[in-house]
Design brief:
Blueprint: E1 2-10, E2 14-17, H1 18-25, H2 30-37, E3 41-44, H3 51-66, E4 75-79, H4 90-98, E5 104-108, H5 114-126, E6 133-140, E7 160-168, E8 176-181, H6 202-207, H7 222-236, E9 247-250, H8 255-264, H9 276-279, H10 286-296, E10 305-312, E11 316-323
Parallel strand pairs: 4-5, 4-6, 9-10
Antiparallel strand pairs: 1-7, 2-3, 6-7, 8-11, 10-11
């Protein structure tokens, strides 16, 4: 069991509005696409920014909000599928530049389900005797991997980072989590060039497979079908039902999916929060960014039971519930 001591986030400064895409790709049918999925704007990193620098800024804010010193953090987990480099881990640079000298550090990559997975992992480390506090950061710099001439992918993604600082708290309330994967979707969306299967060479660059690609289309109802049973299973582990939670935070890829899931549980939209209207889809950073924004607005309060539910390419899913 754990409690969230503090949160933080960072949003880069380069606005990419819907109107900018209309000028480049045309407003028909793009305007209808944005209206349907709920995306209003997104922000891109500067040339000298990376997933590591975004994570550092979010981590700095979380540290400031916590009142802790860098040496108080025992563990750092970075969730990203847009690492600063293939090797070493993005966590190495973040750990060094945040001054977390006492913290073990590593990366987790299960695409956009990564942050919730990383929080689950951190909570299990905290249940032991060795680690007291953990920093978990979701960071996303997908703009670096976009083919900006591809109207199917360039419009979907924005950059950002969000951070939690967790502390072991055995009396803070029950937690539960569920991870689920369906690897048959591994070749539906990803960055396939640049790894060991397709090392960067002239052909990879010509084919632009070092950029994000969507070779196959995900079923439109995949998340709306998978999220409800995942949530029910997670809450049932501690004898609860969906109505027992006060706050829900979901992957921010498509607003109608969130609406559909809340309606399925007969829950008001006031119990959840969306950020795609102002920040677009920020992948592994979207859940902590949405939670931070929700808390800043007073929509989630101390003592509330929270459900985090995320999914990402691969196809990976993660759900976790805890007391804020």
């Amino acid at each position: 069991m754990f409690k969230i001591i503090s949160t933080g986030m960072y949003l880069p400064k380069n606005l990419m509005s819907n109107e900018a895409f209309y000028k480049k790709f045309g407003s028909d049918p793009l305007q209808k696409v944005f209206e349907r999925i709920g995306h209003g704007a997104r922000y891109y990193s500067d040339k000298d920014e990376s997933s590591a620098t975004l994570a550092i800024r979010a981590g700095e804010q979380a540290l400031k909000n916590s009142g802790l010193k860098p040496g108080d953090i025992d563990l750092l987990i970075i969730s990203t599928d847009t690492p600063s480099q293939l090797s070493p881990a993005t966590a190495a640079e973040v750990q060094h530049k945040l001054g977390l000298k006492c913290a073990g550090a590593f990366d987790v990559n299960c695409a956009c389900a990564g942050f919730v997975t990383a929080v689950d992992m951190a909570s299990k480390y905290l249940n032991g005797e060795e680690y007291k506090r953990a920093m978990v950061i979701g960071t996303y710099a997908m703009s670096k991997h976009l083919d900006h001439d591809d109207g199917n992918t360039a419009i979907l993604f924005g950059d950002g980072a969000g951070a939690f600082i967790l502390e072991h708290a055995p009396e803070h309330g029950l937690t539960a989590s569920t991870l689920k994967s369906d690897g048959s979707f591994w070749d539906f969306m990803g960055i396939y060039g640049g790894g060991s299967a397709l090392p960067v060479d002239e052909q990879v660059l010509l084919d632009r497979t070092h950029k994000v690609k969507v070779p196959k289309k995900f079923p439109a109802t995949l998340n709306s079908e998978e999220w409800p049973p995942l949530i029910e299973k997670t809450l049932a582990k501690i004898g609860l039902k969906p109505a027992d939670a006060q706050a829900y935070v979901f992957t921010q890829i498509r607003k109608p999916t969130i609406v559909e899931v809340m309606e399925k549980f007969s829950l008001p939209m006031e119990k959840t929060h969306t950020i795609m209207e102002k920040w677009g889809y920020t992948g592994s950073a979207c859940v902590p960014m949405a939670f931070h924004d929700m808390a800043e607005q007073g929509k989630v309060k101390r003592g509330d039971r929270v459900v985090l539910c995320a999914s990402g390419g691969g196809y990976s899913m993660a759900c976790m519930t805890f007391i804020y």
